[in-house]
Design goal:
This protein has 9 helices and 5 strands; from the N terminus they run βαβαβαβαβααααα. By secondary structure, it is of the alpha/beta class. The protein has a 5-stranded parallel sheet, with helices on one face. Helix 5 runs antiparallel to helix 6 and helix 7 runs antiparallel to helix 8.
């Protein structure tokens, strides 16, 4: 069995992968595979079992190997290919599209950006309320990407009005950037602390 999952909603994709493969499966980085690896990976046996559970990440970045995948559809192993982006014009995709299950996992367009905008604007007035809104979405968000969107909102504010508050916010965000890179604290805790301080800057 080979399935192909793709899209930017990795949380939902990984939930489905766990349902299909169970809690224990091998993870292979697709970019590291060669054509010579495919027979042993997809047709060979493991030491402990006749069938293997395998997740291969970002195989389409490795075009030559991705195109050869169609030659191994008879595998007795359970194999899921997980891609962030998938070029539907590629030879590899065209060879697979009518032969295996392909499923897209996408976040609603611009939802995260709109929510960040709402959280940032709310935090300028009421940090506690902003943190409450964040609680509802952070399970599906990456804290570093979320931080990047906060920075973009602060820069937009600064472009509109280059006042003291806007400058202070950018300084605080630069401090937060350093903390995110060096602190042992959970990233979300650092971001929440910033949101709580924002209204008093």
């Amino acid at each position: 069995m080979i399935k192909l999952f793709y899209g930017n909603d990795r949380v939902r994709a990984l939930q489905d992968i766990s349902k299909i493969l169970g809690p224990d499966y091998e993870i292979i980085e697709g970019i590291n595979l060669t054509e010579n690896d495919l027979p042993s990976l997809l047709l060979g046996n493991s030491l402990f079992s006749d069938s293997r559970k395998i997740l291969i990440r970002d195989l389409s970045d490795n075009k030559l190997v991705f195109e050869k995948l169609v030659d191994y559809l008879q595998t007795k192993h359970s194999v899921i290919i997980l891609e962030i982006k998938l070029d539907k014009r590629s030879a590899g995709y065209k060879a697979l599209k009518d032969k295996i299950e392909i499923k897209e996992y996408s976040l609603p367009k611009d939802l995260a950006l709109n929510q960040v905008f709402d959280i940032y604007n709310t935090a300028k007035r009421d940090g506690k309320k902003a943190v409450q809104i964040l609680e509802n979405i952070k399970i599906n968000e990456d804290p570093i990407m979320f931080f990047g969107l906060l920075v973009s909102q602060a820069i937009k504010d600064y472009d509109k009005k280059q006042g003291n508050k806007e400058k202070k916010v950018l300084k605080e965000l630069s401090k937060l950037d350093l903390e995110l890179k060096s602190s042992r604290l959970q990233p979300w805790l650092l971001i929440e602390s910033f949101l709580l301080r924002l209204s008093s800057l």
